[in-house]
Amino acid sequence: MPPPVTVDAGAIVGGGSGVTGWSARSTFAINDVDQYQPLHDSNYQSIEINAATGRQAQSFTAGSNYNLAAVVVYLQRTGTPTDNINCEIQTNSGSSPSGSVVGTATAMAGTHIVAAIPHTCRFVFPTPPSLTSGTKYWIVLSRSGADDAVNFIGWSIETSASYAGGGAATEQTGVWSGEHATFDYNFATLKTTQSLYQVTQDTKLHVWKSSDNGAAWAELDSAGAPTVNSSTKPFDCDHHWEYRSVLAGGPNSLLYCGYFTNTNTVRVRGFDPFAGTWITADLGGADWSTDVDFNRNIRVTATAWEVTLHYTSVADDADLEFVIYDGAMSAQQVMTAVTSADSSTISDAVKDRTSTVDNGGTRFVSTFHHEANLDDYFVETNFGTTQGTALALDTAAADIEAEHGSAVYQPYAGSGGVHTVIAAYIDADGSIEERTAQLEVTSASITLGTQHAVGTATTSLGRSLATCKYANDLYIFAGLSGGIDVYKDPLASGTWNAVVNWKTGLTAAVLSTALPVEGKGILVSYVDNGNVVVDWFNPSLVAERPPAINLRRNTLIRR
Amino acid sequence: MPLADAWGATIDRSVTGSITLTIQVMLPTDSFDDTLIQKTVVVTESFDETKPVTAGAYARYRLAHTIIAQLNRRHTVLFQLWNARCQHARFVWKLLSYQDRIDERIAFRATLPANQRAPVTAEINALNVKRDRFPAYRDRYATDAGEA
Fold it and tell me: How far is CA B93 from CA A350, B88, B89, in A?
């Protein structure tokens, strides 16, 4: 394992503790993009994809040898097509698709694609085709059903010859038009390889990228970085592949970053990891809320349908609120309205598998929070602005506002593939407890696992937690003032191993994110002495660590 | 304000411990649509008979919140009106609710021995600080809400 790496000296990903404690979701693994044609005409001109004799295609030239994980395109629905949209990769013949298929993506239900407004849609290849550098391929979209000029899907197109590596083609009565000289469909091709992204904050937000597993980091678009109101106030980020076309540009896989622009004002700015640039305007072009308590967590979650900001109200910090943006801004939605001398805290808000276009629009954001009046630890979903009924994970959680903990939960595929989180929280006695929560449903229907005590230490009171699953084992990372502890539940058996004091000797430490990266380990981001640091946690450290041996005592016994 | 002034909503108190408000308002057909149609919004909340003013204010606030959840800034006129009504009703209720809590805690403190009163006094002080914020928030939205 390489040593810890300082990503950004003089920056943070979390701050304070207790009443003024917060931590950001700040570390991400995002598939690398190869070819990218991000534009489409301003009027969202789109071409109808119709029956087998009316397929649409876009050619591209692979920029390197790689396996294709997914294709992202802009689609919009007209009418109610009840069949599927298929996506395949074909080789080139002349200047048209050859008919030779090298990869087939999972089909997308036509009814799941958004009507009237172009929406980015991601077609995933279960068996990633291997592409060769310098070779031309075609993305071919077709519908599975019969020709239907009333109910169909359109693919957004750009007419300004923006992409040099290929062009659009249309099939009519079985004959391809050939590659168009100036027309290009909107698309991006994603590799199976991933780069790591770290968001940090000083007087600005910064996005850093590593393409060598975290050994070296380089900032992207520092000139476009948005200025924050205060270097110590919270920020938070989320990444999503798909979104409706509320921004100029194309397949806007975006990092959405919530940040303070004034004392109690938060806005959200997008960062395009494909292009490596900040979007120049805030999402919605307006304040999302002017009622945000800067002492507590904020959370940004992005689905294919909207972006949500959760926060503690400054008017009454016992209340928790959220605002959504789905092309227009909602009003402040009060999630928790209670009467208490204490404040409530959003520990984390997470999206799940239902966040994608292919889920057809029924999506849930699950918000885990300490409620000030009852001292319960709750989960409550919102589906757009429709709120679920809060479900208590613990009716006797941390009972003083200074004890509430921030958290970053990483969803994982649990039983039946259902997205699940390890909801670790601070208990009334100050120790860490956890329950798993199976998401993808409204909060009243969430299935909770058995409540487990994780450890007896109270050293993480009011500090941040981060949880994830890696290689069938569950992990809880617990922030301390001078380090990071790690707990492991092997094979998710419900029994947590003794604590491992993974990081010691840190200064003013704040834990941010524990990101599981398959085949590589768990990348943990944190603040140490005013610097943002990342380090790989070796999962074998817990399992393989022998029982502690007191050499002095053994020596004495031998005497 | 009297609960009867719930923007013309019908108020049903026929079930003890419960209150139901029903109102007809213009709302979009769905969240992505600008088209407005008349819809019926019904809100049922529990009702504390010992604190009818506060309970009524809460029900009124929840009615406005249910309506504003279906609007966004694209529906400019209705959004501004109901957003102001919602915020105003929220802080009307907050003021009453915190005063109730303060009164409860003062009564509770009186039952305690003198050497056990300090934490409750601290809590009351914190509640007082919060309560004193709410008139300003309430008044900020009063004109737009038509409550000035």
Answer: 31, 9, 6
- For residue B82, which residues of chain A lie inside 8 Å, CB to CB? 331
pLDDT tens profile A94-140: 999 999 999 999 999 998 888 877 788 899 999 999 999 999 999 99
CB A244 within 8 A of CB A305: yes
Distance (Å, whole) CA A291 – CA A310: 11
Taking any CB pair shorter than 8 Å as contact, residues of chain B touching chain A are 31-32, 61, 65, 68-74, 79, 82-83, 86-87, 90-91, 94, 97-98, 100-101, 123, 126-127, 130, 133-134, 137
Q: Do B133 and A337 touch (CB under 8 A)?
A: no
Name the residue among B63, B70, B58, B28 with its Cα closest to residue B43: B63
DSSP A508-553: S-EEEEEEEETTTEEEEEEEETTEEEEEEE-THHHHHPPPP--HHH
Cβ–Cβ < 8 Å for A102, A89:
yes
| Closest listed residue to residue A487, CA positions, set A427, A413, A449, A539 | A539
Instruction: Write out chain B residues lying below 8 Å of A330, CB-based.
Output: 68-69, 71-73
SS3 A24: coil
Residue A76 to chain B, least CA–CA distance (Å) = 14
Residue numbers of chain A with a pLDDT score lower than 70: 1-2, 42-47, 50-53, 244-252, 541-559
Interface predicted TM-score (ipTM): 0.94
Quick one: which H or E segment has residue A260? strand A254-262
- Using CA atoms, how far apart are residues A114 and B145, in angstroms rounded to an integer? 35
What is the chain B residue with the closest CA to A382? B69
Of A420, A44, A96, the C-alpha closest to A249 is A44
pLDDT of residue B29: 85
Q: Say yes or no for a CB contact (<8 Å) between A316 and B94.
A: yes
Of B107, B105, B98, B10, nearest to B58 (Cα)? B98
Q: How far is A24 from chain B (nearest CA, A)?
A: 27
Residues in B touching A318 (Cβ below 8 Å): 130
CB contact A481 to B (< 8 Å): no
Rg, Å, chain A Cα set: 24
Task: Give the pairing of strands A407-409 and A465-470.
Answer: parallel
Query: B66-114: per-residue pLDDT in tens?
Result: 999 999 888 999 999 999 999 999 999 999 999 999 999 999 999 999 9
Alpha-carbon gap, residue A93 to A304, rounded angstroms? 35
Cβ-based burial of A324 (10 A; exposed 0-12, middle 13-18, buried ≥19): buried
Nearest residue on chain A to B136, alpha-carbon basis? A315
**Cross-chain CB nearest to B31 (options A115, A116, A384):** A384
Give CA–CA dist B87/A521, Å, rounded: 47
Report d(CA A43, CA A273) in Å as an integer: 25
Please give the model's pTM, rounded to 2 decimal places.
0.92
pLDDT at A374: 95
Pairing of strands A432-438, A419-426: antiparallel
> Which tens digit of pLDDT belongs to each residue from B114-130?
999 999 999 999 999 99
**Strands A419-426, A265-272: pairing kind:** unpaired
Q: In this predicted structure, what is the pLDDT of residue A251?
A: 58
